[in-house]
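Section 5: illustrative case.
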């Protein structure tokens, strides 16, 4: 285990500028600048496309070894982020799996609050099915807010009468808008990236007047998870969202859903983004890729 790497990354993140005090426009620009520093692996082709009425990026492996589609949902508290900011993660999985990905530019709050982004995920998935993609050939993958959207989108698709996708992979997912997690307090000092005030600020723009116990906002608390496909949840112990992942995994198993809870010690929120400086990040992506290759069928 790379204790020196983890400690160095923690120090680096604590010295970086936060995203909690800026306007929406400034935060979107700052986040895009920060994520542009994340390297994108070679061996992929990136093209503009559209899906479900929304812009998207198609990320294709130069040497495909698998068939199917990874529908990727980026992070950013439902307020900022884009397929471009998640390109490193998307491409990392595409290279490791050999499976093409489509990263969706879903609508963002405050211009388009909940449930606009969930609707966009369902529309994108519906179009894939209408194009002839079998459900067992599609996986939902996402990080942070996008990790939560993988679950909310699958639940909404199920409730709309669509077949669920082959699998879900959620990195550091936010799945409790009620903010009832104990680790919001117990991990406050350990988390170098997120803090409660920032989460509450961006969440208010997204949730608006909706009940925070809505199953699509808080699937770790209130959703009927019956019928979800196999889920891989990855999270680090230095995250205030740690209990979001743990409680979701427990409730999913109680609903007879096959779920893999993959916890890495002493790593930050969406640590998989840092595979260029953290061995555990690349190893986690390797495990996610194996999971996807085992489940996605063209």
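Designed sequence:
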């Amino acid at each position: 285990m790379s204790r020196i790497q983890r400690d160095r990354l923690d120090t680096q993140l604590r010295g970086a500028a936060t995203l909690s005090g800026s306007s929406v426009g400034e935060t979107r620009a700052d986040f895009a600048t920060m994520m542009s520093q994340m390297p994108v692996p070679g061996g992929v082709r990136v093209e503009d496309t559209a899906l479900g009425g929304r812009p998207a990026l198609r990320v294709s492996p130069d040497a495909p070894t698998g068939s199917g589609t990874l529908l990727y949902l980026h992070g950013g508290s439902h307020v900022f982020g884009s397929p471009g900011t998640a390109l490193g993660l998307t491409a990392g999985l595409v290279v490791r799996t050999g499976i093409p990905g489509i990263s969706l530019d879903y609508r963002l709050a405050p211009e388009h609050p909940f449930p606009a982004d969930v609707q966009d995920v369902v529309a994108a998935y519906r179009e894939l099915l209408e194009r002839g993609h079998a459900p067992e050939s599609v996986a939902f993958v996402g990080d942070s807010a996008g990790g939560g959207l993988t679950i909310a989108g699958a639940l909404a698709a199920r409730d709309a009468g669509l077949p669920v996708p082959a699998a879900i992979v959620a990195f550091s997912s936010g799945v409790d808008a009620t903010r009832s997690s104990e680790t919001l307090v117990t991990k406050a000092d350990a988390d170098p990236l997120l803090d409660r005030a920032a989460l509450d600020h961006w969440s208010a723009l997204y949730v608006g007047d909706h009940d925070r116990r809505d199953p699509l906002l808080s699937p770790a608390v209130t959703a009927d998870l019956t019928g979800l496909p196999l889920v891989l949840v990855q999270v680090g112990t230095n995250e205030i969202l740690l209990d979001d992942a743990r409680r979701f995994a427990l409730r999913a198993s109680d609903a007879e859903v096959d779920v893999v809870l993959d916890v890495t010690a002493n790593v930050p929120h969406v640590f998989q983004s840092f595979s260029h400086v953290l061995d555990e990040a690349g190893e986690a992506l390797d495990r996610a890729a194996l999971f996807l290759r085992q489940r996605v069928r063209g």
